[in-house]
Design brief:
The chain is mainly beta. 9% of the residues lie in helices and 36% in strands. The protein contains 2 helices and 9 strands. Strands 3-4-6-8 form a 4-stranded mixed β-sheet, with helices on one face. A 3-stranded parallel β-sheet has the order 5-7-9, with no helix packed on it. A two-stranded antiparallel ribbon has the order 1-2. The chain is globular and about 55 Å long. The two termini are 24 Å apart.
Length: 171
């Protein structure tokens, strides 16, 4: 994403609603986000810790390239508004494309750090693994200092037959 822009995030529906409502007075049965207005700016940290040419910064790729790969429109995520935000207004993310019958011996690492300078992360990660391939992906999210930060993200994984994908997510 180039430059910054104000983004009004409005999620009206309750998020993470428990299937059995209990102890209403504790306020843990569901989550409501208040309106948030923040400027989405470029994420400036290096986050791809891999020298593999199979991993690319999605912000630098023409959207038509990966939209062609992503033809299935399957609902997922905690809300449509947040998924749309991650897919349309992202400021970081990785496109991983592993060809058929390829085994990556070393894990691919994505390291997303939030701090006062990079206080908003909206990552859009697309993972495509070909038939008979193997991939380990480590996604590490952390906050430095006492920064007040916002994170929203989307990770979509497309795995062909006989592929193996191990995802390790650290938060």
């Amino acid at each position: 994403m180039k430059g910054g822009r104000d983004l009004d995030i409005q999620v009206k529906d309750a998020l993470n609603v428990l299937p059995v409502i209990t102890y209403r007075w504790l306020g843990v049965n569901q989550l409501h986000l208040n309106d948030i207005t923040r400027t989405v700016k470029s994420y400036t940290k290096r986050f791809i810790l891999s020298n593999s040419d199979l991993v690319k910064n999605i912000s630098l790729i023409d959207k038509s390239h990966y939209d062609e790969l992503n033809k299935e429109n399957v609902g997922y995520g905690v809300s449509g508004e947040l998924v749309s935000l991650a897919q349309e207004a992202f400021n970081a993310g990785a496109l991983v494309q592993v060809p058929p019958k390829t085994t990556l011996r070393e894990p691919i690492r994505l390291l997303y750090g939030l701090d006062r300078e990079n206080d908003m992360l909206i990552d859009n990660n697309l993972i495509y693994v070909g038939q008979g391939s193997q991939l380990t992906l480590v996604m590490d999210y952390f906050t430095n200092d006492d920064a007040e930060a916002f994170h929203n993200g989307s990770t979509r994984i497309f795995a062909a037959a006989d592929s193996q994908i191990d995802i390790v997510k650290i938060q």
